[in-house]
Amino acid sequence: MDVRELDRRAVLASVDLVATVAIEDLGRSTPCDGWTLADLLAHMTVQHHGFAAAAEGAGADLSVWRVEPLGDDAVSAYAVAAERVTAAFAADGVPDREFALPEFGKGATFPASQAIGFHLIDYLVHGWDVARSLGVGFTVEPELVEAVWPIALAIPDDERRRRPGSAFQPGLVVPEDATRFDRILAMLGRSPAWGTPATGG
Q: In this structure, how many other beta carbons lie within 10 angstroms of the beta carbon of residue 75?
């Protein structure tokens, strides 16, 4: 299946989750170390805009990746950004383009399918982050899990994960009987048990 359709489904699921966020929820902690829910939504929103710009040929402009506080408009700003990125990915000719993604290094570019794969795994995991922050359930489509599994395996677990503001933390060990999605979460530095009654979040 076209990675753009898989990404669209992950993004729409995240929009549904974010739509349930109330202003008083924005100060909640999240599985992203040191980030409140407001911080997480600001990151997710700007990443949508950055990837949309990359799809449009303007990803090398560092200003499109600059995180700005969203304040009380976080939910509506997120919905607008999600609509923008899905429209940008769906545009004619996008699968044949190179995406400039400066967050991966100065001058870094990637084929569209690989870049959109990065976006897909980001929003699948961040959807889980939002759900855990809110204390609600998170159902992930098996097809999406299978699609992001090889992407997770390929993400370097290096010093970049230790930098302030990194969306992914150093990988964790999980039991051998863990689900594939739990393994993906652990590879990206999330404890699958975060926020459950057993840990207290």
A: 20
Query: Could you tell me if residue 56 is inside a domain?
Result: yes
Global pTM reads 0.90
What percentage of residues in the chain have a pLDDT greater than 90?
Answer: 73
Q: 53-106, pLDDT tens digit by residue?
A: 999 999 999 999 999 999 999 999 999 999 999 999 999 999 999 999 998 888
Q: What angle do CA 19, 24, 28 make, to 5 degrees?
A: 90
**Three-class secondary structure of residue 36 per DSSP:** strand
Residue 172: DSSP 8-state: -
Token pair, residue 157, equals 């677990």
The tally of CA atoms less than 13 A away on the side-chain side of residue 43 is 22
Look at the chain and report how many structural domains it folds into.
1
CATH number of the domain that residue 53 is part of: 1.20.120.450
Query: In this structure, is residue 147 part of a structural domain?
Result: yes
Question: Considering the domain boundaries, does residue 67 fall inside one?
Answer: yes
